[in-house]
Amino acid sequence: MTPADYCRQKVARPDSSFYYSTLFLPASKRESIIALEACFREIVDVIDECQEVAVARIKLAWWREELERAFSGTPRHPVGKALQPVIAAHSLDFETFDTFIDGVNAQLEYGRHQTFDDLRLHCQRLGSPATLLSARIFGYDDAATADYARELGTAHELTRIVRDIGWDARRNRIYLPIEDLQRFDIPVSVLLNAGETAGLRPLITHQIERAEGQYRNAVARLPENERTQQLSGLIMAALDGALLRELRAEGTDILRQRTVLPPLRMLWIAWRTRRKEKHRHRQRQRQHT
Is the CATH number of domain 111-289 1.10.600.10? Predict the structure, then answer.
């Protein structure tokens, strides 16, 4: 198995939203994004794979070293080998990867997020590095696109947290801010035991609306003339938007099941978003002729 095959097997499955968000990329850029995503996935999987915090820290330290090797041209892991030419071709920086590893390390010290500002910092550390580096691979000239990419990653991580409320709770992880639980009078035990209480649906709705607002804020920052290059991020936003609507409809059931969109629906959303952006691009061209 080649390094590229390993990465594709790791993240580019036809049942994943990532697969459809990258579907319309040129082959070379798609392979680059797949290698990048595989790297982030390997690192974040450490938390689920390691029961002992000390072991997880050792594995995260190894991945930090592997990234250093990838930057210096001597990677050992298939993902590092796939990522090495991507780093060189797109001038990716080590600091952004390092920020991500720091964020994953912070999860090992697990404590509840007291405020939304605390949660937002968590989302910036875990969500923004991947979208920022992806935006560089897609290509941009306007610095505002980097701001868009950072906010996009935060929105994506907020969406993941809402989707996985029940899944995380079963692993004794509660990412929702304590101030929100108190506002809606939700004991932590309700989430841990997938229980029911009056304020639970409003709590979930509040989290969904927060993620939706974050996506609107992100997309509003994207310069009009760089939307075509950043199509994959716009598709991801559309896919997450559809997922958030499903989560809203399911309400408290999301504590007991993990909601996913059917592959055919994800394909339709990706194709429709691409068609919409192509139409928008043609209109913009006509306005400037």
Answer: yes
| 283: pLDDT strictly greater than 90 | no
Residues of the chain within CATH 1.10.600.10 domain(s) are 1-110, 111-289
Average model confidence (pLDDT) for the chain? 93
* Three-class secondary structure assignment of the chain: CCHHHHHHHHHCCCCCHHHHHCCCCCHHHHHHHHHHHHHHHHHHHHHHHCCCHHHHHHHHHHHHHHHHHHHHCCCCCHHHHHHHHHHHHHCCCHHHHHHHHHHHHHHHCCCCCCCHHHHHHHHHHHHHHHHHHHHHHHCCCCHHHHHHHHHHHHHHHHHHHHHCHHHHHCCCCCCCCHHHHHHCCCCHHHHHCCCCCCCHHHHHHHHHHHHHHHHHHHHHCCCHHHCCCCHHHHHHHHHHHHHHHHHHHHHHHHHCCCCCCCHHHHHHHHHHHHHHHHHHHHHHHHHCC
243 versus 193: the higher-pLDDT residue is: 243
Among residues of the chain, what percentage have pLDDT more than 70?
99
pTM, to two decimals? 0.94
Q: Would the pLDDT of 162 be above 80?
A: yes
Q: Which CATH architecture has domain 1-110?
A: Orthogonal Bundle (1.10)
